[in-house]
Design a protein that fits this description.
This protein is an alpha+beta fold and 286 residues long. The chain is 53% helix and 9% strand. The protein has a five-stranded antiparallel β-sheet. Helix 1 packs antiparallel against helix 11. The longest helix is centred in the N-terminal third of the chain and has 42 residues. The radius of gyration is 26 Å and the shape is elongated.
Length: 286
């Protein structure tokens, strides 16, 4: 029997097809999961936040619900809970006492209430995260919401504050003076939406590279949605993998046709030919 030609290429080709099939299945499963999470959050937010409220009153409604502490589950071992699953962070009391997961719960409810929100990390001089808060777009200003303390940061006159305004020591003192027991070290000298220093080798200096290529990249995308909701992260990962595998398959197909001259089944061409034959009028021979 003749040996198959180009065994390495054929192995790569079929491996690519197999991975593409797996990626398409992953997109379907991740899409269904993300749709389910969004439906869950929509129902949850509808029970807490009336749609007709202004943006500021929507934020206050969410904070009032978090402050009221309705009946919630108590986990025997909180370390086993998923901190990236909204259905978990909203329903366990221990998670709503931690700044990261409390902010995550607030962000998910705020998005479901049609608010523009994003996560903000307060960094120590060493670059570690010392606290996590949220930014909410209200009247074209990104005001600070501390979900852990269930409050919107405001000055002595009640004016809502942005992170840049809170960098002023006098204004920061006014803001925390309204919140009993608020730690003074939760200041705003150094902030970030993504802490790339968590990557090996101090993030490979990626922040400097990204800033040079696209200034403002960190605020151009809602990174907190990608990083804090596991269902959305897996959906994006599956979609990106599918696109890359489709491009790889297209490149392999071109290489097989143009360089190796390997006969292969062209699905699109055969589908077009079969469709044309199906809808064409048959010839009647006399």
């Amino acid at each position: 029997m003749p040996k198959p030609k180009h065994p390495v290429f054929r192995a790569v080709w079929w491996s690519c097809n197999l991975l593409l099939a797996v990626a398409l299945i992953a997109v379907a499963f991740a899409g269904v999961r993300e749709f389910s999470v969004r439906r869950y959050l929509d129902g949850y937010s509808d029970a807490i936040v009336p749609n007709f409220l202004s943006a500021e009153r929507k934020v206050q409604a969410i904070l009032d619900w978090m402050k009221a502490e309705p009946s919630r589950g108590i986990a025997d071992n909180p370390a086993t809970l998923s901190t990236r699953d909204p259905e978990t962070t909203l329903n366990y009391a221990q998670l709503l006492q931690v700044c990261g997961t409390a902010t995550n719960a607030f962000l998910n409810l705020a998005r479901a209430s049609d608010l523009r929100v994003r996560r903000l990390l307060l960094l120590s001089p060493a670059g570690t995260a010392k606290h996590v808060v949220a930014e909410v777009s209200i009247n074209q200003r990104w005001i600070i919401v501390d979900a852990t303390y269930r409050t919107m940061m405001a000055d002595s006159q009640g004016r809502l504050l942005t992170r840049k305004e809170l960098q002023d020591p006098a204004i920061f003192s006014q803001a925390i003076g309204r919140i009993p027991g608020y730690p003074r070290e939760y200041s705003y000298e150094s902030v970030a939406h993504i802490r790339l220093s968590r990557l090996p080798f101090r993030g490979f200096h990626l922040r400097r590279v990204f800033d040079a290529i696209y200034p403002g990249w960190e605020e151009a995308v809602d990174w907190s949605l990608l990083l804090e909701r596991v269902s959305f992260f897996y959906l994006v990962l599956a979609v990106v993998a599918t696109i890359l595998l489709l491009l790889l398959r297209q490149a392999l197909g071109w290489y097989a046709d143009s360089m190796l001259r390997i006969p292969r089944f062209h699905f699109r061409e055969n589908l077009i030919r079969a469709t044309a034959a199906f809808f064409s009028t048959p010839e009647i021979k006399e």
